[in-house]
């Protein structure tokens, strides 16, 4: 592309369609069939950005189904093949594929977590990274301290609070197409829990609360890797001896939403700091209140006494159950649809994209105005200074020793020629 054409292509316009690359992890397809929070957000971003007229290319597993262009990073999503090992090399492969094509795009939106930080720092095309996970484990603090220069998106106010010096472009709460979620204006007779089979999700506490309150509990949870299988055998299988505890496995969205809509309340009693909590907004969209521990981003999603209740322990959770009938399930749903819409989320991401593109354009313009001439580039030279003619005076007849004299000295070799510097 010629320099002039490239300047025109990069010139920021508030309404011009953008060429956007979305980079997703390769574990599950986009959108996921069952479990897959990050991939669900990538899917709704891709669909809404395409609907708005942007040219979107999604780098994801080959069994993904997207509205725009798909670049397969692996032939089939890893978990669909039965793969259970470390995924980091496959994520690096995905990053390499988008880096190789970066010139095609105005902006790259990475969902590859910290593995994409080098791409974000060194790729000439602007890269913004949404961080979906917890940030205080597995060496991530060291990476955040090193990569303070790269643009980042947080998914809650709570998530980035330990790293205020990093380059946070925005806090953008997730949005989902929630309007089609089933709704019931009457509380059901069982408690619901949706998540992963891990201690982080408060599954043991949920079982204990069900026993204390003598209510049924339905658990829909992903059991995939060896640690999750081990935890299921240790914590959940013994509880299944009770007829009131039911394990449903990982449910597809329609079945999961129907289960949530029919519940008395959904439980999120894990003590770990949820970076966001998609399960919470999915439950609220069905009108079902959430009883959650005051941890992570959940206080940003649940207004105590309006959308559900925030608790510190099981005693408070048991008390919250008695107050569930005081809540309006219709109000819970209406607030969720308003606060966590796809349109709101994509509006905020689109503004970040345009800001990054405009800043890149500004940097390139500044560089063009200060760059020194390069070899092979024709540069206008200043006019040569005028050289006065040499006038020779004939020798005087009365002076035999006299010789011709110059009124003006001849110019030196450098006079009349522009200097290199």
Keywords for this structure?
7-stranded parallel β-sheet, 2 domains, Rossmann fold, globular, disordered C terminus, disordered N terminus, 421 residues, 15% strand, alpha/beta, 15 strands, 6-stranded parallel β-sheet, 34% helix
The number of strands is 15
Strand neighbour order, sheet with most strands: 3-2-1-4-5-6-7
Give the second-level CATH assignment, the architecture of the largest domain: 3-Layer(aba) Sandwich
Rg from alpha-carbon coordinates: 32 Å
CATH-defined fold name of the largest domain? Rossmann fold
Specify the CATH class of the largest domain. Alpha Beta
Q: Describe the largest sheet.
A: 7 strands, parallel
Task: Please state the overall shape, judged from the principal axes of the Cα atoms.
Answer: globular
- Termini separation comes to 30 Å
Mean pLDDT score = 87
How much helical structure, as a percent, in the residues? Answer: 25-40%
The count of helical stretches stands at 13
User: Structural class of the helix and strand makeup?
Assistant: alpha/beta
How many domains is the backbone divided into?
2
Output the helix-strand order.
HEHEEHEHEHEEEHEHEHEHEHEHHHEE
Amount of beta strand: 5-15%
| Uncertain regions spanning at least 5 consecutive residues | 1-12, 387-421
The CATH homologous superfamily of the largest domain is named Glycogen Phosphorylase B
